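Table 4 source record.
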Amino acid sequence: MSKEIKIVVMGSEDVGKTTLMENLIGNIGKVEHNGTTVAIDYGNIEIEGKKIHLFGTPGQERFEFMRELTLNGTDFVLLVLDAVNGLKQTDKNIINTLCSKKIPYAVFINKTDLCNGEESENLKKEIYSLCPDCDYIIEGSAIKKEGFDRLKDIFANLDVWCVF
């Protein structure tokens, strides 16, 4: 098995980070209060011989310190956005942090099954305006597991284009 990879799953609240992790991995460790994540979610998956550890951060602003802590030693970030509600200030702050720290990341635009294509296209334009170097934007649905094959492909090839 090659190097183990740490991926942090980030995004503002209620974008579907925990649902994405549960449906991608299966059983994860999570702490919720009234259906809202209040601690770090964790799970791991093996893809093409690589063990990938995923750490999901709570999205509420009061948990910003957890997002900062989980970035230590991370190899990659998966930023989850809500296609219906668009970019929130928390998401913009995360993108700015990732760009300034030069942390490689992909964006998963979730809930595309609930919006029209125009909303998703506008969201992509806004992402590129904040960070033109974003290499991967995947559209999908965490509940319907749409876009997961592309996510797994990106995870499987991380060592090809990330400097560890």
